[in-house]
Amino acid sequence: LGYFTYLVAHSNRTIHDSAYLRAMGLSKPGFMRSALIEHGIVAGIGVIVGIASGLVASRVAVGAIAHSETGRELLPPFILQTSWWPVATILVLAAGAGIIGVVSAFIGFLRTPLHELTRSAE
């Protein structure tokens, strides 16, 4: 959800940034590399932090309730298992959204007239 919010905010900023980059002579492949690196870093950090915080939070939550009525730990101990298919599905959807964001930024980079972008208000 955070990455999708970032994409919406980023799309507004990218329109003006791309105009200045074009004015400075950035090539089409250079713009694509720049956008892919930027989105890759944001997505990578988000995936690592999200998975780590999810695993820690689930262990804390299970550890807090995995006790018998006398307050002792359960025997046999409760083993936490994670189903990775929903996580993988969400990651694929986020990657697809990121690719769509980069491609739409690239199309805007190519199609919008430079003079129109540099004179518009932010």
Q: Main beta sheet, described?
A: none
Overall morphology: rod-shaped
User: Topology as H/E string?
Assistant: HHHH
Radius of gyration: 22 Å
Number of domains as seen in the coordinates: 1
Q: Estimate the helix proportion, in percent.
A: over 70%
Number of helices: 4
Q: Tell me the quaternary state.
A: single chain
Broad structural category: mainly alpha
- Can you tell me the residue ranges where pLDDT is under 50 for at least 5 consecutive residues? none
Into which percentage range does the β-strand content fall? under 5%
Question: How many E strands?
Answer: 0
Question: What is the terminal separation in angstroms?
Answer: 25 Å
> What is the overall pLDDT average?
80
Structure, explained:
The protein has helices at 2-23, 28-65, 84-111, 114-119. With 122 residues, it is mostly helical. It has one domain.
Question: What are the main properties of this structure?
Answer:
single chain; 122 residues; 4 helices; 77% helix; 0% strand
Secondary structure elements and pairings:
Elements: H1 2-23, H2 28-65, H3 84-111, H4 114-119
Helix pairs in contact: 1-2, 1-3, 2-3
Structure summarized in a few sentences:
The protein has about 120 residues and is mostly helical. The chain contains 4 helices and no strands.
